[in-house]
Amino acid sequence: MNDRTILTLFESIENPYLVTAIILIISLAVIYKEAIIKNVIGKVFKKKKPVQKIQDLLQHDVFATLERATHEVKVMKFYTNKEYDKVKSRMCYDFTKSKSRICAMHMKNIARFPDMETMTNTELKNFIIKAQTDMHKDYVENTKNFWLAKGIKEKDVNHVIHLFETFRYDVVSSFEHRIESIFGSSFHETNFDKTLAVFNMWAMGIDLLPRDMQVTFEGLNGKFKNIKY
Length: 229
What we know:
The chain is an all-alpha fold. The chain has helices at 3-11, 16-31, 33-45, 62-74, 86-112, 121-149, 154-183, 191-207, 209-218, and strands spanning 79-80, 83-84. It contains 9 helices and 2 strands; from the N terminus they run ααααββααααα. The protein is elongated.
C-alpha cells in the first residue's frame, strides 16, 4: 500500500475525529511496536510450560546427594589415642550406608505414590510427616539389627544411636518446622510444588549428614576399638 492509497483512504473518511484516532493508533503502534510484539503477539505464540508431576522427583538431586554424602563418610578416618580406629571408621560408614539406602527407598516410594496429585493440603502434609517418621524408624531399626548381628551389645548399639540422634536433633526439628511452613504457605500452589520443597529440604539436611556422623563417632573414644567387627 503506497502513500497515495493511504491518503485516498483518509480522504474518504468524513469524520475528522476518526481520522485523528486512526493516525494516533498507527503512530503508537510504530513507536511501541517492539513492546507490542513481545507482550501481545509473544504471549499468543508462547509455548506452554509442561505440567510437572510428583513422579518427576525420581530425578531429584536428593538421590545424588545421598550417594555423595555416603562417599564422604566412607573416606573418613577415625582415631583413638592417635591410632587409626578401623572399627569406628567402619561402623560410621555402615550406619551412613544403611541410612542412605533406606532414605532413598522411602523417597522413591513417595514420588511413585499414585494418589499424591489429588490429595488435599492436609492429607499431603500428614502423608509426608508419616513418611518421614517411617523413614527414620526404618533406618534406625535396620542399623540396630545389623550391629546386633555383628555381636555388639544392645546397650552399646543404643548408645551410638542416641548420640547420633542427639547431634541430629536440630536438623530433624528444622524439618518439622519447614514442613509446617511449606504446607501453610501460599507460595507453594500445587502438590508438586509442596513435595518439591520437601525434597529440597531433605537434600539440605543430607548435606549436613557427614558432619553429624563425624561428631557422633569422634565422641565414641575407643569403646569399640578391640571388638571383632
